[in-house]
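#lab-general

N.A. 3:47 PM
ok so I finally got the sequence cleaned up, no stray characters, all 331 residues accounted for. can someone with queue access submit it? mine expired

B.Y. 3:52 PM
send it over

N.A. 3:53 PM
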Amino acid sequence: MITVAVIAPQPGDTTSLYRAYGPFGHLERHNPDIRVKYLTREECAEWHKFQNVDVVFMQRPGGKGHVDAILALKQYGCKVWVDYDDDYFHVNSDNKGFVGTVGEEFQNSILGCIKSADIVTVSTDALAKTIKQKVERAIVVTLKNAVDFRWWDGILSRRLPKAQRVNWRGLDSHHRDLQSVESEILELAFNNRDWMFGFYGWNPWFITDKLEKRFDYFKAPIFKYHTDLALSGGKVGIVPLLDNAFNRAKSNIAWLELSLTGHGVVAASLPEFYVPGCETYKSGAEFKDKVKAMMDNYEKHVRTSVEFIEANYNLKNWNKKRVQILEGLTK
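B.Y. 4:20 PM
back already:
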């Protein structure tokens, strides 16, 4: 029996679904020899809670307190596994997390977490490369974000007939990314009066103020916004991203979610989006043309993407690597 303690800063958020509570819940459900406990970082100071724990998984640790916690856990006799889904070494200045991550103290703390951990997992090869450049001796493994199709059973059966709709999902950290195609979105809206636009997670007012009420805005917990995306009947999902170090390390969760809710996806020309069924663009003009073309040809792209997701982004398969990691840490 291997006992894992999982520590996630926000158990109910998207990254926990794909990186922490989601995969470890699946892991325990399908592996009788693995037991999972869910704890808080504050509980790292309570040594008695770790005497029956073999491995501690910490999602995106950062800050001096996390380094101290990792060192304490190792003193208790636990192996420590840390996981990152974003490149904290290259946070953009427009990101709300920039001020908290750009300082020398935080950067040194992230390095301290990586150096102190027994293994580091990340969501993309680009992020793995960055971490290895920072800490050469770190053991870094890429574990792609993947889906448990059990999450989607009730959602996929409720998809509505298709509508003339373009959908985006994300948070305010993508302000500048959306601004990069602002004029193209507005031109598409002006030339196609029967289209609606949906924004899930954040209202980009600099666009929606000019859309003459032909938009919807939704902010909801993760499974609710998955359902809302499916129920919207959207044909096209857009993933505009600027080409920078932070975005090059991003995973393709947006493509996964939009494809599984029935959207043909148009995304920025970045490595994680070079996947079957996804159309990529390099300029605003190309973005506009591909969105327009996708409206008439989304079904083929959806089928291609979903088949590829089922074959390559199935959590059951990726969790086999997590089992291997746990066995390697405890042998």
